[in-house]
Amino acid sequence: MPTAHVDTFARDRLPPRELWPEFRFDLPELHYPDYVNCATRLIDRHVRAGAGGRRCIVSPTVSWTYDDVLRKANQIARVLTEDLGIVPGNRVLLRAPNTPMMAASWLAVMKAGAVAVTTMPLYRASELRYMIEKARVRVALCDLRLRDELETAAAGVDGFATVYFESNARDGLESLISAKPGDFENVATAVDDVAIIGFTSGTTGTPKAALHFHRDVLATCDTYGSKVLRAKPDDLFCGSPPLAFTFGLGGLLLFPLDAGAATLLLEKAGPEPLMQAIEQRGVTVVFTAPIAYRAMAELTATYDSTTLRTCVSAGETLPLPIWEAWRAKTGLEILDGIGSTEMLHIFVGSPRGRIRGGATGEAVPGYIAEIHDDDGKPLPPNAVGRLAVKGPTGCRYLDDERQHTYVRDGWNYPGDAYRMDEDGYFWYVARTDDMIISAGYNISGPEVEQALLAHDHVRECAVVAKPDPVHSTSIVKAYVVLTDGCAPDDAKCEELKGFVRDRIAAFKAPREIEFVAQLPRTETGKVQRYRLRERAAADPHPLSS
């Protein structure tokens, strides 16, 4: 199929077709025209239908209608194309907390036919530099408050241009869009033109870049959005995941806008701010992680949560005690789910009205899921094996040999061990790789190890997950062998934690560091991480706060 992309970088670096998963479009709504721009459906169509006066994107300080958001997105698209020279297919890096301007900028990138590379505020310069180089980014829209790390990351990159927003400067985005008309003709992108490059860490510590089409964006709305969430135009969404996470992108932008509803974006969305927002703004749909639901359940006596209708959990498995505690406090059953950056959003989730506490749920309509053995053969009910998925979305890495690992024989293998019962409900068992899932974040142990090893006093180290039963999650624990003459004391421990936080995102830094004389290794010299995981799990010492 022809492409609207003038810059074909992303399309040219898709994996070979024989390495793609099998895509299934079993639902009639998954059959799209050859040319479709996802922004047209998310925003333009509501205005054309006469719903422009409805609230759309709000924050503690602003309230934008669909008319407002359309105008802002159109003006930003004009800045991108007229002032910054963006052509269809160019990659645009977006860097900001969850704010209305961040959301409008994402929509503008879609309208311009460019490719969004959305990054988390917590990422440091080294992480941003890798993304810039991997995706060949030359233009960024960035919140002024986050400029330092981006400027360091982009130093020396030829032709790199950044426009800052949340700025009063004459060359700031707000000033530039004030001179632009509020109309823009959306680029007629092909249904399989790349719209998103989503970065996620792998077990090797090197982030992988997942490519998603305009079709994929709409498919998540036509599967999980319409079949499970069933949002209404009078809903108000809110939650904690960053828009840079596909969990947050779907839950806090795609799904509410596709339904003609509204989204409340919070820059800081911890448990108490979320509960405050629910009470004060009348939130009806909330997206957050299990650890937040645990804390929020304890706040229900303080804050009124009776407006809530739908509660969604993802990012890590939802423990049954948290599910039960939330139901006891609110009368609501949390919709659990599992998704991935490679699949774009949730593909196995709790079916509304037929939830089983403790189970992740069933295959989302439009997807099929099975449990396979190591040879890719289906296993009988209740046997533990590898979760395998097919549907309208799937893994396509940007120029990455690890495509062979995630996709085999047409199936996506997200890297989770599950069992499926006789009724088709999936029950989480464990991760099948060395990723550490902590407070909803996927953290690569090897990446943390690399940061630690950059310290002159670290001879060797290994990083594993340590269970935190109090918070029903895991923490990052590092076992460190120091160089000769260095004292393994509390001061050194805090020094190393700070050293890591200065190099990678703070949430990846070890919560605990244990100094050891040597690491357990095989005869061939490989670190036996399973022994360290067993040691961490058996550690009787309480976790640090």
Task: Characterize this entry briefly.
The chain is an alpha/beta fold and 545 residues long.
What does this structure look like?
There is one protein chain. The protein is built from 16 helices and 26 strands. The chain has about 550 residues and is α/β, with parallel strands linked by helices. The strands form 7 sheets. A 9-stranded mixed beta sheet has the order 2-1-10-9-11-12-13-14-15, sandwiched between helices. A 4-stranded parallel beta sheet has the order 4-3-5-6, with helices on both faces. The protein has a 4-stranded antiparallel beta sheet with strand order 16-17-20-21, with no helix packed on it. Strand 3 (about 90-95), helix 4 (about 100-110) and strand 4 (about 115-120) form a beta-alpha-beta unit. Helix 5 (about 125-135) crosses helix 6 (about 145-155), helix 8 (about 215-230) packs across helix 9 and helix 11 crosses helix 12 (about 320-330). The relative contact order is 0.10. The model has no long low-confidence stretch (mean pLDDT about 95).
Gyration radius, in Å:
23 Å
Give the strand order of the largest sheet, numbering strands 1, 2, ... along the chain: 2-1-10-9-11-12-13-14-15
- Overall helicity: 25-40%
Mean pLDDT: 93
Question: Helix/strand/pairing class, anyone?
Answer: alpha/beta
From the N-terminal CA to the C-terminal CA, the straight-line distance is 54 Å
Beta strand % = 15-25%
What is the β-strand count? Answer: 26
The helix tally amounts to: 16
